[in-house]
Design brief:
The structure holds 2 protein chains of 2 kinds. Chain A is built from 10 helices and 2 strands; from the N terminus they run ααααααααββαα. Chain A is mainly alpha-helical. In chain B, α1 packs across α4. Chain B starts with a helix and ends with a helix. The chains are: A mainly alpha, B alpha+beta.
């Protein structure tokens, strides 16, 4: 691909991917015009392309012009601690609430949310599935999202590690409970049980197969990125 | 006193705004027009025009739109009302600066 080296310099320099994409698109169009002009001047094939590329400017010069425009820096480059250090637990919680929200909506529409209302067995199964979905699909998806951000912005692997590790350390987990004394309905939600507290270990012990799967799935994107970076070296 | 690079940057901005006052253009056209009008006196790498165009657009001085002409799709830039005001202010500034420098250089 044309300008691959320039793309890497710009992304590593913190320029937002959308600005990089537009810059490279316009450079490509400009290079086509320059090449066409060189051909019209009598240069052919590779000669015309080389002359056009020289006229366009060296990668160093093209990169410097973009890097000195500070307003084109991405927010991940300007405040990675905010995006990868603070946002992940909130994003994970919000994502995990999606299947529970859908479940609550179904319960409300069908009248199962009423106090003392009888609920069919399939709704209990659905609630279990929603909790599993929150733990094993939506929670790992947040890891995928932040690892993809790190990959896209060519940031250090440490930021991916931070983004994945914080929700795991805080241990966000969803559980559906059905037979609770004095509680007529289903209790389902997203809870936080940090692993440095006894409560965390207790929950992990009780739910260990799901927890193990949740941790493995959340760590997989990180392993993928680490392998990709090692291969690229 | 502005540095040499600041002067050059200001000069590029002034020329771009002035050219786009006449008609909308795409990057390649702007660079060619600058080369012709300055008789090749300013020959930076042609691609460095784009970060300037993008910055001017971000500041609301230019607007852009993708347009297909002759089977080629390109991003065309044009001046906004804010850009026109900025051009007017910059033109006044550069004219007085140029007169001042000229007065020093041609003093007997």
């Amino acid at each position: 691909m044309r300008f691959e080296a320039l793309r890497e310099i710009l992304l590593k320099g913190g320029v937002a991917p959308r600005h990089v994409r537009r810059y490279l698109a316009e450079l490509t169009e400009h290079l086509d015009d320059l090449t066409e002009k060189q051909r019209a001047l009598g240069y052919d094939g590779e000669d015309a392309e080389m002359r056009a590329r020289a006229l366009l400017g060296e990668d160093r010069e093209l990169a410097a012009a973009m890097l000195e425009q500070k307003s084109f820096r991405s927010i991940t480059a300007r405040a990675p601690w905010l995006i990868f250090g603070i946002l992940p637990p909130f994003a994970a919680t919000a994502a995990m609430l999606v299947p529970l929200g859908v479940l609550a909506l179904i319960g409300k529409v069908l009248g199962f949310a009423e106090k003392g209302a009888a609920r069919p067995h399939w709704f209990e199964l659905l609630a279990t599935a929603a909790a599993a979905c929150a733990n094993l699909v939506f929670f790992p998806l947040v890891s995928v999202l932040f690892v993809a951000l790190v990959a896209r912005h060519r940031l250090s692997l440490y930021w991916a590690l931070v983004a994945v590790a914080i929700p795991l350390i805080l241990f966000l987990h969803s559980v559906a409970e059905f037979t609770i004394p004095g509680h007529p309905g289903i209790r389902i939600g997203v809870g936080m049980a940090p692993i440095f507290l006894a409560k965390g270990w207790k929950t992990m012990g009780a739910q260990w197969p799901t927890v193990a799967a949740q941790y493995v799935l959340a760590l997989l994107p990180l392993v993928w990125l680490a392998r990709r970076r090692l291969t690229a070296r | 006193m502005p540095s040499e690079s600041a002067l050059a940057a200001g000069l590029s901005e002034l020329m771009v705004l002035r050219l786009l006052k006449e008609q909308e253009m795409y990057g390649y056209e702007i660079v060619q027009a600058i080369a012709v009008r300055t008789r090749q006196a300013l020959t930076p790498g042609e691609g460095v025009i784009y970060p300037l165009l993008h910055a001017l657009e971000k500041d609301g001085l230019l607007r852009s739109r993708r347009k297909s002409v002759g089977g080629r799709s390109r991003i065309y830039y044009s001046l906004t009302a804010r850009g026109a005001k900025r051009l007017s202010a910059m033109t006044d500034h550069w004219t007085s600066l140029s007169n001042a420098v000229g007065a020093v250089l041609h003093a007997v």
